[in-house]
Amino acid sequence: MKVQYFEDTDTLYIEFRRGDIVESRNLDEDIVLDLDEQGDVCAITFEHASNRTDVHHLTVEGIAA
Asked: Over the Cα atoms of the chain, what is R_g?
């Protein structure tokens, strides 16, 4: 899993798994889900992330071994 924040565009990208993206679905004008061939969510993108999320405060809990 990878989390990236691009301050210059205020974009938050969260990659849950690597894979070939075959479809991107707009949930609204600022949120996009990337799906693989099986319809599983591979990533989510938040535009205007500082307005839509608490991007400056990241807490990680329960990391699998």
From this structure: 13
